[in-house]
Amino acid sequence: MLKLRDYSITKKLTWMNMLVSGAALLLACAAFVVYELTTFRAAMLRNLSTQAQIVGANSVSALLFHDPQAAENTLSALRAAPAILFGGVYAKDGRPLAMYWRDRGGPALPLPAIPAGQMETHWFTDQELILVRSILFQDKLTGMVYIRSDLREMTNRLTRYASIVAGVFLVSLFAALLVSSIFRRIAAQPIVRLAEIARIVSREKKYSVRAPATGNRDEIAVLIDAFNEMLAQIQARDGALETARVELEERVQQRTAELEAMNKELEAFTYSVAHDLRAPLRHIQGFSDALVEDYGPRLDAAGKGILQEIADSTQFMGRLIGDLLALAHVGRQEPQLQLAGLHSLAQEVLRDLKHETDGRNIEWRVGGLPFVDCDPGLMKQVFYNLLSNAAKYTRPRNPAIIEIGSTSVNGRGAIFVRDNGVGFNMKYSDKLFGVFQRLHRREDFEGTGVGLATVQRIIHKHGGQIWAEAEIEKGATFFFTLETLETKAPQEETRTFALKGEHG
Amino acid sequence: MNDAVEILLVEDDPRDVQLTLRALQAENVQNQIEVARDGEEALDFLFRRGIHSGRSPDHPPKLVLLDLKLPKVDGLQVLKEIKASPECHAIPVVILTSSGEQRDLVESYKLGVNSYIQKPVDIAQFRQTIKTLGLYWLVVNRPPPNKTFHEGPREPGL
After folding, report:
1. B123 and chain A: CB distance < 8 Å anywhere?
2. Do A283 and B19 touch (CB under 8 A)?
3. How does strand B33-36 pair with strand A475-480?
4. ∠ CA A408-A412-A415 to the nearest 5 degrees?
5. Which of A275, A289, A322 sits opposite B123 (nearest CB)?
6. Counting beta carbons within 10 angstroms of the beta carbon of residue A286, is it exposed (0 to 12), middle (13 to 18) or buried (19 or more)?
7. Is A232 found in the same domain as A129?
8. Which end of chain A is less congested by CB atoms within 10 angstroms, N or C?
9. CATH 2.40.280.10 fits B7-151, yes or no
10. Is B47 on the interface with A (CB under 8 A)?
11. Closest chain A CA to residue B124
């Protein structure tokens, strides 16, 4: 149910008009009716009083000579006034002399008393006007006239009046409605239109619309002007904002392009530096070898020791360069995605690794691995780096346990590589994937610090994340996700593929 | 100048030359190796121009070992000219380079290279590779007969 204050302004105005004009009309009609009632009652009373005087005057002789017949004749003249129900002439002692009944015969009604000092008394009951008047002859009380008149005429008249008033009331209200509708158009319509436009603006965020001017010079026109002005300001600000956004976007794109170019340049630099370092390295190795071959017999143990140091250093530098080249290579190329079974890729890597770790007691546990869109060559490198790392850092363990499998982390599919090796302190985990960052001393565990950086770059190129959990002396677990892992990892296919991988 | 050259080594880095020669020494072919230090010198030798104008056309080298990064004329250009020439196109050319670039590989084979070898970083592997290379091309492989060089390619321009 709508409350009045929730009504539209048009309805409110109509209601207001109707209520005001209705109230005014009602008051006017009521005043009119009351006035009419009073006037009519007075006229009626005057009329009845006159009739009573006439009857009284004509009944004097009948009273004096105690002639009821004459009095009755006089009374019968009352028949001319159809409203009169009863008329009676009474002697001054109150005994009835003659009476008149309009509708029926009947006994004389007892005479009501006239208050002392008055000629006449009258009162209205619900349906009748009752009048008693003294009859005087030569200023002496001779008798009384008693007349009762019904009020039907007055009621009828009032009813007629009421219907006329009601008619006038309705017609006036209708006229008021017409007038208010005209005013409504002038007063409310612009507000209604303004409200509609405000609704459109807030709903569609369209600041180019404008409320139409009314051409008037009232408060509504001021409101519309202010509203339009506000819209214009919003539109201007919106435009400025959009321009700023576009500019910002352009700047971001430009910066991104610059960064990409810089990154490419850096990668190209890394590549060419690493590449160009290979030749002198080979020369150092070559001439060291030549020194041993040609002058070996003339070198003592210390000299040979120095040569061995040179050989070790050059070998390490060779590995460093190789790893850097691999890292730069990953950065330079986009992964060529194709559907590949991670299980069989891991198995291929394991074959190489088992060969490399010959003589060690390593328990390899390979769980079910999915079938995903990835660059198989790069994924093999990921597995190689992670698994060879695991093999390296479990060297003090007998047996070493290295596990690879798939799991779910926060609802996302992930691959993990777990070992029971020496682990590391989680406090340094942020350094884990940095180039040249190492968490172990080289004399304990050899390495260049490039392997995990390469793994991270490959994973990032596949839209995935890599992280590790570890505890000192309790092993480490590396987890990684791939963008394609969540969407394309049908478990059934995984299983069949894994089986195929094992049997084929 | 010894006309009976077995290998033409085209290499600009003197240390690489020295180490390659050392590796080939084991095969006892050191004396029959001609070294060109840039692409132009290699072409002069093969086409008997400039200082090599007096060389006999009857003894083409049995093998060209060609580096790609060379001063003046680069290795791919040298390869292109060898394979386009009626006189020299039959000489086996082996690219010996540190470049592992995909486009170098593709381009070399398109130009008709006989073999493409990336110089191993490790010196032991490098020596082994050079040894194998010399052994294969000079001992195992049968070189084209001399008259091949006078007939020219079957389809000139290829």
Report:
1. yes
2. yes
3. unpaired
4. 55
5. A289
6. buried
7. no
8. N
9. no
10. no
11. A286
